[in-house]
């Protein structure tokens, strides 16, 4: 239905030739934009209602009761349904540390929350199918859990900024909401989030449309295809300086996969963009000393590269 609408608009009303570069690029842009916004509106509203059961204070208390391993798994799972991003990293980190959440468990949450979320899940499901969506969720959770466990084992509490340990945040009262209040919250949250991310969606779809219509397939496959043994770390290096959320990066991933890039390479790129970014490093520098910050980024980057190679190998056989 949506594809027919996009085809009719581009090739009949506008009059661009099917198969032409501008026609294919514009068709991709219109189809993906409408589809993504419909998916986003529906799923964000539903998940926002679910999130009312996991306010920040309740999340902190829940994680503070669990130690390593179980705590890492629970933290990574909670990261999927909690509305945090790198922008809230500093107050979130301080609150977790003050509540007694182990350092490694805290990092499992901080990795999972921006990387694995409902936006990524529904958009991947809608664009690539449930198998790709579950692969991404599974690998994202694995990276968050393993990286958090490794950081916890390194016992790097001394490399948290000294002032963090001195702050006493205190515990806020958890207020239960009625169903009507949850619906109102979900509506406001959905509209607010769409207002924030719509430019990323438009830019991401625009880049994806350009790649779809104009980027030569042989060029992309030559430099980032299976024959290049350094394609995965290259994808991670390219992704780290970028700053986007899942809504902005998934249309680019869609176009790259259509051009023939292996799934492991594209997933590595997406994970690097959403979980590792320069703005996040600048924000976390306020609470982490250099050694812990570099260790955090290094462990996550290595884990993402391993995931990329693993899936390229598995799906190539």
UniProtKB/TrEMBL annotation:
<keyword id="KW-1003">Cell membrane</keyword>
<dbReference type="Pfam" id="PF03773">
    <property type="entry name" value="ArsP_1"/>
</dbReference>
<feature type="transmembrane region" description="Helical">
    <location>
        <begin position="197"/>
        <end position="215"/>
    </location>
</feature>
<feature type="transmembrane region" description="Helical">
    <location>
        <begin position="132"/>
        <end position="151"/>
    </location>
</feature>
<comment type="similarity">
    <text>Belongs to the UPF0718 family.</text>
</comment>
<dbReference type="GO" id="GO:0005886">
    <property type="term" value="C:plasma membrane"/>
</dbReference>
<dbReference type="InterPro" id="IPR005524">
    <property type="entry name" value="DUF318"/>
</dbReference>
<keyword id="KW-0472">Membrane</keyword>
<dbReference type="InterPro" id="IPR053166">
    <property type="entry name" value="UPF0718_permease"/>
</dbReference>
<feature type="transmembrane region" description="Helical">
    <location>
        <begin position="74"/>
        <end position="97"/>
    </location>
</feature>
<keyword id="KW-0812">Transmembrane</keyword>
<feature type="transmembrane region" description="Helical">
    <location>
        <begin position="291"/>
        <end position="311"/>
    </location>
</feature>
<feature type="transmembrane region" description="Helical">
    <location>
        <begin position="263"/>
        <end position="284"/>
    </location>
</feature>
<keyword id="KW-1133">Transmembrane helix</keyword>
<protein>
    <submittedName>
        <fullName>Permease</fullName>
    </submittedName>
</protein>
<feature type="transmembrane region" description="Helical">
    <location>
        <begin position="35"/>
        <end position="54"/>
    </location>
</feature>
<feature type="transmembrane region" description="Helical">
    <location>
        <begin position="235"/>
        <end position="257"/>
    </location>
</feature>
